[in-house]
Amino acid sequence: MSLAARGHSLTLATLCNSPDEQQSLARLQALGVQVIARPLARRQSLLNCIGALPTPLPLQAVYCRSQALRAEIEAALGTEGTGESTKGNREFTKHTNMLPIPLLAGVPSGIPDH
Questions:
Q1: pLDDT tens digits, residue range 67-95?
Q2: Where are the beta strands (DSSP E) in 1-114?
Q3: Percent of the chain with pLDDT over 70
Q4: CB 40 within 8 A of CB 62
Q5: Residue 36 CB-density burial (10 A; 0-12 exposed, 13-18 middle, 19+ buried)
Q6: What's the CA gap between 61 and 52, in Å, rounded?
Q7: How far are the Cα atoms of 11, 13, 24, 78 from residue 81, in angstroms, in the given order?
Q8: What is the sign of the dihedral through the CA atoms of 73, 75, 78 and 80?
Q9: At a CB cut-off of 8 Å and minimum separation 6, what does 74 contact?
């Protein structure tokens, strides 16, 4: 029995570029998962890394940074433009400016353990 059938909701926010990734996301949507997906051009990843070189941030924390994905996440949480989040999502949105979340690839390395 799926989580949706049990009354749970699950939202996956990710970056997606390849047709294989898009097919995987479509399968998740068919299972009742809300998917928020945006493409991230290789050029943008390179610019993210170049911009982080003079900072203490690890490159892996900025490689997949996407303002477009962050905006969609904030819109889904009802917090667009506020920099704040709903009570249940406060810790998540605190770190959405560091979203190195490869599609279904384990724990994001850029989100600190708290």
A1: 999 999 988 888 655 555 444 454 444 44
A2: 11-15, 34-38
A3: 65
A4: no
A5: middle
A6: 9
A7: 20, 18, 30, 9
A8: positive
A9: 80, 81, 82, 85, 93, 96
